[in-house]
Amino acid sequence: MKASRGGEAYARIYSVVRRVPRGRVVTYGAVARLAGVPRGARQVGYALHALAEADRDVPWQRVINAKGEVSPRGEADWASLQRSMLIAEGVVFDQKGRVDLTIYGWSDALVNEV
Q1: How many domains does the chain have?
Q2: Of 14, 17, 59, 69, which residue is least crowded by CB atoms under 10 Å?
Q3: What value, to the nearest 5°, has the Cα angle with vertex 32 and ends 17 and 84?
Q4: If DSSP codes are grouped into helix, strand and coil, which group holds residue 96?
Q5: For residues 94 and 98, what is the distance between their CA atoms, to the nearest angstrom?
Q6: pTM for the whole structure
Q7: CB 32 within 8 A of CB 40
Q8: Can you tell me whether residue 25 is helix, strand or coil?
Q9: Is the pLDDT of residue 47 over 50?
């Protein structure tokens, strides 16, 4: 992991994301709070975008927005790739393209959101 790319904050963000179990999702904001980066949801997005090939152990696909949606990215196929990866893990999307966070939300993060 290249923590130096984003400093200690990126290292903490990657550490939190690594804890999200298969078949669960977490919001950018919850990752920021758990990583000690208050109001840092955008920074979580930047950190995940900065992942390199060497960082394959960071399950970036499990981080979604607070609406329960896959956030659009600049690259055309990333959203569909992320959605496909989550579906393969057993995460279900509704007809609006949303994940029910009460069902699939990572419980450690939900406890910390209160």
Answers
A1: 1
A2: 69
A3: 45
A4: coil
A5: 5
A6: 0.87
A7: yes
A8: strand
A9: yes
